[in-house]
């Protein structure tokens, strides 16, 4: 991933505050190359996030047509830390995808594994 991706995540979070921002991490295999913001359709977007299902379906359809893959998801914690909240843990699919959580300037990445979230350290490339 590039520093541009991380900067975009921080910018999206800043612009959405006090609500949580959310969206998709797109790319190939485990390489995140693009951030796709989506609407936060949660009932209370200040305290939770829910990615717009239509945007998720559209992204998966594009991936089947040789577009970028859905590598994972991102969202912000405007008043919290960049770690999975109780709500995040309860809603996780345990599907192996990557979650980026943004809190201020801090961006942390997590693998949503069968046993729960595991912190990961993504490799950064400057492209």
From TrEMBL:
Record CDD domains: MPN_like
UniProt-listed GO biological process terms: proteolysis
Keywords: Hydrolase, Metal-binding, Metalloprotease, Protease, Proteasome, Zinc
GO terms, molecular function: metalloexopeptidase activity; zinc ion binding
Ranges of residues in domain MPN: 1-127
InterPro entries recorded: JAB_dom_prok (IPR028090), JAMM/MPN+_dom (IPR000555), MPN (IPR037518), VirAsm_ModProt (IPR051929)
Recorded superkingdom: Bacteria
Keyword Membrane: no
Stored Pfam families: Prok-JAB (PF14464)
GO annotations of cellular component type: proteasome complex
PANTHER family xrefs: CYSO-CYSTEINE PEPTIDASE
Listed name of the protein: Proteasome lid subunit RPN8/RPN11
Organism the protein comes from: Novosphingobium marinum
């Amino acid at each position: 991933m590039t520093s541009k991706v991380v900067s975009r995540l921080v910018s999206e979070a800043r612009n959405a505050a006090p609500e949580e921002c959310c969206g998709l991490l797109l790319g190939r295999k485990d390489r995140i190359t693009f951030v796709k913001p989506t609407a936060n359709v949660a009932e209370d977007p200040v305290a939770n996030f829910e990615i717009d299902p239509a945007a998720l379906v559209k992204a998966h359809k594009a991936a089947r047509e040789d577009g970028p893959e859905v590598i994972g998801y991102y969202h912000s914690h405007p008043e919290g830390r960049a770690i999975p909240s109780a709500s995040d843990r309860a809603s996780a699919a345990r599907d192996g995808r990557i979650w980026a959580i943004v809190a201020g300037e801090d961006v942390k990445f997590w693998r949503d594994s069968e046993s729960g979230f595991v912190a990961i350290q993504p490799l950064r490339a400057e492209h």
